[in-house]
Amino acid sequence: MSTGEVRERIELLQGTLDLLVLRTLLLGPAHGHAIMKAIERSSDDVLKVEQGSLYPALHRLIKRGLIGFDHGTSDNNRRAKYYRLTPKGRKQLVVETSKWDKLASAIARVLRPVT
Fold this sequence. Notes:
This protein is α+β, with helices and mostly antiparallel strands.
C-alpha cells in the first residue's frame, strides 16, 4: 500500500469524524468529553471516539472556521472549552451530509446489487 493510499484512508476517517462532530454540535455547544459521549450514545456505543482523534478534529474544524469555542465551566466545575457550530459550519454540515448520503447509497448498491 502506498503512502498516498494510506493518506486517503486517514482523510476519509478524519472527514467522517469531522461530520459527526458538526452534527453533534448542531444540538448546541458542548465540551470535548460531551461531544465524545454524544457520538458514542447516538451510535448505540458502536462508534468509540478517542481523545487522540477528537481534539485534532476540533482543531481542524476551528482552523476552517466551521466551529468556534468559548471558555466555561463543566458539570464537574472544571474549566472547559465549549465548542459551537458557526454559520459556515451549519452550511458545511448540509454539504457534507449530502456527500455522505451519496457515498452510503453508492456503497449499498455495490454491497446489495439488484439481481
